[in-house]
Design brief:
Chains A, B, C, D: One of its GO terms (molecular function) is transcription cis-regulatory region binding. Chains A, B, C, D: InterPro entries: DNA-bd_HTH_TetR-type_CS, Homeodomain-like_sf, HTH-type_TetR-like_transc_reg, HTH_TetR, Tet_transcr_reg_TetR-rel_C_sf, TetR_SbtR-like_C. Chains A, B, C, D: Keywords: DNA-binding, Transcription, Transcription regulation. Four copies of one chain form a homotetramer. Chain A is mostly helical. Helices cover about 70% and strands about 0% of the residues of chain A. Chain A has nine helices and no strands. In chain A, helix 1 packs across helix 2 (about 30-40), helix 1 (about 5-25) crosses helix 4 and helix 6 (about 100-105) crosses helix 8 (about 145-160). The longest helix of chain A has 23 residues, at about 50-75. The radius of gyration of chain A is 18 Å and the shape is elongated. The N and C termini of chain A lie far apart (about 55 Å). Chains in contact: A-B, C-D. Chains A and B meet through helix 6, helix 8 and helix 9 of A and helix 6, helix 8 and helix 9 of B. Chain A binds a DNA duplex (21 and 21 nucleotides) through helix 3.
DNA sequence: AATGAATGAGCCTTCATTCAT
DNA sequence: TATGAATGAAGGCTCATTCAT
């Protein structure tokens, strides 16, 4: 909290706070609120992220970074089918973001910017690999394109977390992604 | 025409305008804008819907009303499986609301109020019937509950309309709902 | 002050307040301050003048309107020389605006907009007439162009009002404008 | 080089930068911007000039210092009339400050402080000498006081530099100062 | 002495809501 | 009942100033 002591730490705290607040209150949450949650002044938020959009982009990028990590790690899983569906489940269930993530995914302009674009490409590539392997293993329909997988993620991220019962939520998630399997 | 009917007409115009504006610009659209679109003053909007939330509720209720109508009509369809999936596709593809609808569905507080609750119950009942018949006909998994159907609707409404290519959108929709079918 | 009672009156009050406040505290004065002076809420200021620039333009336009009126009235004066110098003195001495007026005159972008442009043209024309007549009467150098007259006005408006002694201020003003006379 | 001279060099750089930035962007320019231009951190700016006002004063003082130098040098010119008018023209045309200079001159509080006061007195004295000599030589009206000369400088500094055409600007300047000459 | 991150007051602007007409 | 002007709380953002390093 002391000035200068660690700018990077503050940046991270703001990012964290933003993640939580956006998740809890939607993208409309005020910068003030985020600053409070991060334990810093508004000015600090704006110093690190000059615009609300920039903050949003950063949150989204951080989120996608994690996704990419997950996907890349799973690309080496011996069971390609399980790997893909694991990835999907983990992604949707991931604590925290939820709404903000999905919201951001669909907001025009966000996700197109220079901060997010590279990460997005990385995730896309990783998921494409996951998908390809799953298809070769016969665990996923042949006619599924990566873009569709992201639509599934988007939809599931939005809707499924609204279920509070753990078992039911898991079941619904599985069911929705079952649409990707061969019949 | 009597003042009574004048008022009724205005109410309808506002509701219509709200539907369009929310669909086009999101729930953040200003009341002013809705009034302009409806060709009335802001005051009139507030006379009919004392709060933005009330307006939202009314829009949602109207939307659900249509859904219920659809569902009830389809309940008499000779092919129960087709009936359910027709209903789902129609619901998601329905022009207009889309995002606003889904947004509203998940906003806490909305959909729980006295305006929406009854309609919601009606839709639920109608969809339950549709679902039950489809299950009896073997077109849908036995272990699906109505609640889950709504989660599917919610997710699909959010994500699928972001696809601009008509054929791809339809295919994705079908694929997602395929998760409801028996394997 | 009551809503609706007289929107036009409120607009005028805001304009008046803006004039005074800008004159007293410079163009940087806050809208809040202007609202307070006008006895209205900030929202009202923005309803009438959607932007600070718009308010500035309006103030400037109002000011120029008065100038144009003055100039046009004086164009019929039997003594062309006196007419021009009267106009100049009156313009500079005019209570109120002072700083804001001159500031606005030089701010790029302001004075070029659609609100100010027409009035500006009107003043220019009127002053051109005044100048022309004064030159024909031999009261002003032949080689003076209207543009230069405005530069004189601008400079004098800025500097002369800083003199508090009435007689000295008048004398200085006369002296400065003497530069326009034939030698 | 000793820390002493380091500090001195920095002070000068800041002053220089401030001069340029104020001239280019007006007194509203941010301290950050000035620091950047000077190639130092904001902290350094504030170490040397604890307040924006202090910085402004310093800039003004530096400017007046130059003026005083000019005036004192010209006091020995064999042609007293030419000397005064040369001084006036040079002062107004002086690249750099222009607007900021004039702004500062009229802002209450600035120019009255302990930093500026002494220099101001020095300029005043020097200009008084210049004026006196010019009057004795019959190049300037008898009834002109030093204060009025400064008002002329102020007004001309504000208005004349807005003219972009070199010849026209010079002519206008001459014309305005002609007001000081005997008729 | 220099640095620049942190701070928070303050600015412009938007918008739901009220209420005189 | 309809209207739209008025209101003021909030929101995003800027900037002078402080202070740990």
């Amino acid at each position: 909290m002391s000035p200068r002591s660690d700018a990077a730490r503050n940046r991270a705290r703001v990012l964290d706070a933003a993640q939580q607040v956006f998740a809890a209150d939607g993208l409309g949450a005020s910068t003030e609120q985020i600053a409070r949650r991060a334990g810093v002044g508004v000015g600090t938020v704006f110093r690190h992220f000059p615009t609300k959009e920039a903050l949003l982009s950063a949150v989204l990028a951080a989120r996608l970074e994690t996704l990419a990590d997950d996907a890349e790690r799973l690309a080496e899983d011996p069971d390609p089918g399980a790997a893909l569906f694991d990835f999907l489940a983990r992604t949707v269930q991931a604590s925290g973001l939820k709404i903000a993530y999905a919201d951001a995914l669909e907001r025009a302009g966000i996700g197109t910017d220079e901060v997010v674009a590279p990460v997005r490409e990385r995730v896309t590539k990783a998921v494409a690999t996951l998908l390809d392997r799953a298809q070769r293993a016969g665990a996923v329909r042949e006619d599924v394109a990566v873009g569709q997988v992201f639509v599934f993620i988007h939809g599931a991220s939005r809707a499924v977390p609204t279920i509070t019962d753990d078992a039911l939520r898991a079941a619904t998630l599985r069911m929705m992604f079952d649409g990707l399997r061969p019949r």
